[in-house]
Amino acid sequence: MNEDLQKRLAALLRRVCPRPTGCDGAARKLLALYQEPIRHYHNLDHIRHCLGEFDLFRNLSRDPDALETAIWFHDAVYDPTRDDNEARSADLARKVLADCGAAGDFAGRVAELIM
Which of 17, 35, 75, 86 is most buried by its number of CB atoms within 10 A? Predict the structure, then answer.
C-alpha cells in the first residue's frame, strides 16, 4: 500500500530535482518519518488524504509541484512536545531539496507553503 506513495514521491522528487541521485533514498527517509510509532494522525494516511484532496484541484495551482512537495514535507518533523514542527519541517524540505539540486527559489516556495 505504501509502495504507491513511495513511487509517487520518488517521481515528484525526480521532477523537481535536477540531480536525481539520492531521490529514492530521500523518498524512503521521508516515508519512514511518517511511519514513526509516535504518529497517530500525522502519518501516511494523513498524507494520502491530503494528496487525494490535492489531486482534485491540482489543475488550479500555478505551481502544482511546489504545492505537492509542501504536502509531503508539511508534517515531516513531528514532536508533540514542541511547537516548531512546521519550521523544522520547512528546514528539512530546504535541505533535502538542496541536496537533490532543486533551485533555491523552488525550495523557498515549498518552505513558504509549509509555513
Answer: 17
